[in-house]
Design brief:
Blueprint lengths: L3 H17 L7 H7 L1 E7 L1 E2 L3 E3 L5 E2 L1 H12 L3 E7 L4 H6 L5 E2 L13 E17 L14 E5 L3 H9 L4 E5 L2 H10 L4 E5 L2 H8 L4 E17 L3 H14 L3 H11 L20
Parallel strand pairs: 1-5, 1-6, 8-9, 8-10
Antiparallel strand pairs: 2-3, 3-4, 7-10, 7-11
Helix pairs in contact: 3-9
Keywords: Signal, Transport
GO cellular component, one term: outer membrane-bounded periplasmic space
Protein name: Polar amino acid transport system substrate-binding protein
Length: 271
């Protein structure tokens, strides 16, 4: 169990590490020579990615990262990142890849290379059960929290232009804003409700669905070595005993079929 105190410490760690990380991304051959791969991960967003009280990376993304590193005979070195800093950290060469709950979108595919998807993630608007918010139109004049630059931000900015959108640095801050009354609703993923129930049982509910995302591993554009290695790994890993066990342990929802294609996105580097 990751406590609110631990989440707060994780957020502070993310801020410090994001500012201090030197550029150090490697090619696949360089990573093999070094014996490690540097993987960007979220520190505050369990069950996807989070830090234990001792600073160890946990969550489904961490499990996928360790399995990938092991398949290459490498050590996984995890770098905690805030939501808005994920892609900038990758493009600035601070990490070799992102396994950080990065939803695959055509817009993001202009900046990063996605692997085939490895998991699904449903997005909602979540609020107190007493709130009458049946659809996006009902959000007019309502304060709605979103993680800055996340898909919930993009979707609700477009679909609820009359809402009072308030942006927070990460998922933990977004959840805390709802719990503390800073906002009346939040753009959430499918696991927010579990975390909200742990903090205030029976108070909140998902009001309506705003999107369906699929998570992919992100690498830099043109890096065919990492992209090829990741797609080969995912082809054998998804559906395996290890994948199913980690999915059950962390996500605790049934596995689902993942799409072979997504409009506007290529899962392989063009040669």
């Amino acid at each position: 169990m990751i406590s609110q105190t631990t989440l707060g410490l994780a957020v502070a760690a993310v801020a410090l590490m994001g500012a201090a990380l030197p550029a150090g991304a490697m090619t696949l051959d360089e990573a093999k020579a070094a014996g490690k791969v540097r993987i960007g991960i979220q520190a505050d967003n369990c069950p996807w990615g989070c830090l234990s009280t001792t600073g160890e990376a946990q969550g489904f993304d961490a499990a996928v990262g360790r399995a990938f590193a092991k398949s290459l005979g490498l050590e996984a070195e995890f770098v905690p990142l805030a939501v808005a800093n994920r892609i900038p950290a990758l493009t600035a060469n601070r990490v070799d890849m992102l396994i950080a709950s990065v939803g695959i979108t055509a817009e993001r595919a202009k900046s990063v290379q996605f692997s085939h998807p490895y998991a699904a993630n449903t997005l909602y608007v979540t609020a107190a059960k007493t709130a009458d918010l049946p659809d996006a139109a009902a959000l007019a004049g309502v304060s709605v929290g979103v993680p800055r630059s996340a898909p919930m931000d993009t979707i609700l900015t477009k679909e609820a232009p009359s809402a009072d959108i308030r942006r927070f640095d990460d998922d933990a801050a977004n959840i805390q804003a709802l719990l503390s009354g800073q906002v009346q609703a939040v753009g959430s993923n499918q696991f927010y409700i579990q975390r909200l129930d742990k903090a205030s049982a029976g108070t909140y509910e998902n009001k309506f669905k705003i999107g369906q995302l699929y998570q992919g591993v992100a690498t830099r554009l043109g890096e065919s070595d990492w992209n090829t290695a990741l797609n080969g790994f995912l082809k054998s890993y998804i559906g395996s005993e290890g994948y199913n066990a980690s999915h059950a342990e962390w996500l605790q929802v049934p596995t689902t079929d993942l799409p072979a294609t997504i409009d506007g996105v290529s899962f392989t580097v063009s040669q």
